[in-house]
Amino acid sequence: xxxxxxxxxxxxxxxxxxxxxxxxxxxxxxxxxxxxxxxxxxxxxxxxxxxxxxxxxxxxxxxxxxxxxxxxxxxxxxxxxxxxxxxxxxxxxxxxxxxxxxxxxxxxxxxxxxxxxxxxxxxxxxxxxxxxxxxxxxxxxxxxxxxxxxxxxxxxxxxxxxxxxxxxxxxxxxxxxxxxxxxxxxxxxxxxxxxxxxxxxxxxxxxxxxxxxxxxxxxxxxxxxxxxxxxxxxxxxxxxxxxxxxxxxxxxxxxxxxxxxxxxxxxxxxxxxxxxxxxxxxxxxxxxxxxxxxxxxxxxxxxxxxxxxxxxxxxxxxxxxxxxxxxxxxxxxxxxxxxxxxxxxxxxxxxxxxxxxxxxxxxxxxxxxxxxxxxxxxxxxxxxxxxxxxxxxxxxxxxxxxxxxxxxxxxxxxxxxxxxxxxxxxxxxxxxxxxxxxxxxxxxxxxxxxxxxxxxxxxxxxxxxxxxxxxxxxxxxxxxxxxxxxxxxxxxxxxxxxxxxxxxxxxxxxxxxxxxxxxxxxxxxxxxxxxxxxxxxxxxxxxxxxxxxxxxxxxxxxxxxxxxxxxxxxxxxxxxxxxxxxxxxxxxxxxxxxxxxxxxxxxxxxxxxxxxxxxxxxxxxxxxxxxxxxxxxxxxxxxxxxxxxxxxxxxxxxxxxxxxxxxxxxxxxxxxxxxxxxxxxxxxxxxxxxxxxxxxxxxxxxxxxxxxxxxxxxxxxxxxxxxxxxxxxxxxxxxxxxxxxxxxxxxxxxxxxxxxxxxxxxxxxxxxxxxxxxxxxxxxxxxxxxxxxxxxxxxxxxxxxxxxxxxxxxxxxxxxxxxxxxxxxxxxx
Length: 829
Prior knowledge:
alpha+beta; 6-stranded antiparallel sheet; elongated
């Protein structure tokens, strides 16, 4: 490095252009960097979702979930397999080891799932395999409301807003919650079916056969050619009532004879309320690797253009905008970075008392920081809390090398009466090894952080590499730009006596006197100094045990979620009513500006689960902090009946469908009854742990269900098979799509099911007819015994065994690690 320093002193243009090249590349790289809250963390996780409408959780577990788990279990490098079997849906999440390529993992899972598709129930839908990407997280929630029917609002939100926003730069996916898509319903009266000696299969097959359009080929007529087209599709929804089903004694039985057809909408399984007003919510997720702030800005700008063309009674409002907190956090760190640089230069000037030497030393800060942007762009890093923290921390470190070199050069000019040119060469040569040793020791600390393993390593790798590169650039600056500038701009001290006199000022005399006394005492009491140093080092262990440990800090983001779970078996309307009642009370709290209540929007699509997104005013516009308002919400929820479970959580910053609870503790075993017993005991003890709130369990039992016990001898006498019973009930109760209906360039489902009066209780269920080979059709109560019962609303599994997860949140002042230790003690008891 001495040769490089000597070359730069003799060739100032070379030194200037060398550093300037790094700075210019860093400046241009800065404008290409994305802005996000955390670094991009690629966790190789793949989800498999299979729907089977109407199936019970235990049926889903046996017929779908276990088969998927068995199929994917043979894939290499699997870390864990989690699954949730809920009503009508199986969700299997496969997490791989971090060394596994996520794209390859998704393809391998897809191949394995394709092999078991023939073994799935006939009523099951096509499996959906997706790679989970935390970076493709939701960034915006847009509420659409209007004094119109839910179907019309959904149509506007879908056709006029969603489709126009989907092609915006950076948008990955837009999901609609709380909407109701148009659907044609053929509602059947089971009693009239039996009167005409028909089955639901006859209706299903007739709709499929009478609403069909197949290519007819071509006709050649001399020099001309005609395309033959049969217009067999229904062009008006009302015409479905006139479709013929069968002929009975010369009379054509139509759909209108056994029921009716209506132009309606699909059965709602989600609901949304914005400040108490029904709304349709658009959840906008960004593409992986895209700039969150830029994506949100692009969507909001396009939404303004779309809103201008919408009907006047349709209102659109951005409720949740994750980019606001991200931008504020990054801008705040940027400001601290600039302020830190200025204060560092002021402190240097305070001790050097020379404007030229101060500027020469301080120039290492912007050159090192700006040059680091080039490495960040090359490695795909973003401007986030981790990388900006690294740059802010480096402000006080990158200037050290320049100060050491500059001070030594100045000492050569002052003590050896050398010219600045000679002092720059000899002073840098003398101190070169010491500077390199200092810098390499810092690199030895920060560089290994970039190679850490595990999830923490994925978060902190950008911190290590960013810090290490800034330090390396500061070393280069100290051997190139610093000696060159010193040799050209620092003057040789001409008045040594005056210079020394200035250093005899009161502050410096006091510092010199105190430091000399401390040094003298330390040299006389060497054993005491060594013992004190060892005591400080060993005190790290007990102090580390007492310090709270959390994975992420709890920042005031001016938002939080309130989770509500009504009793098992609650309908969508009942849950919506309870949830909106809670939201109305929360809106009266100071600082709350919006509440967005969403029912049935979770991963399991359960209608008795809901969440309330609470939007707060900015931090400087309210007197209470986010944590205080969260605690007030918890106090408010204590007045709810004991059968309604509730909790308060922070809004997830990473995304995904997993719980955002601070603490998750699971019990595993094959017997659901024992799991329920042990989890209830542990849950009761959890509620006594200090600083632990919102304790809850994932085991949901007591869901009302109607069990049909088949009388096999009687069914055999009447010529009724089990498969006929199940297929008929699946169509009559759950409803099956028999055909499609085209309206313009859109296509909607035609669903067949029993009229609502027959699906309201066991009495109507008993009157439903099932096919019989002897008498055409018989009522259900002739072949089954109907009994009421209860069952689990969902079955959770971990690594192919049933499990229950206990969750909770840590209150301010608490520690996740300490509470986890307490949980382990309770489980051992």
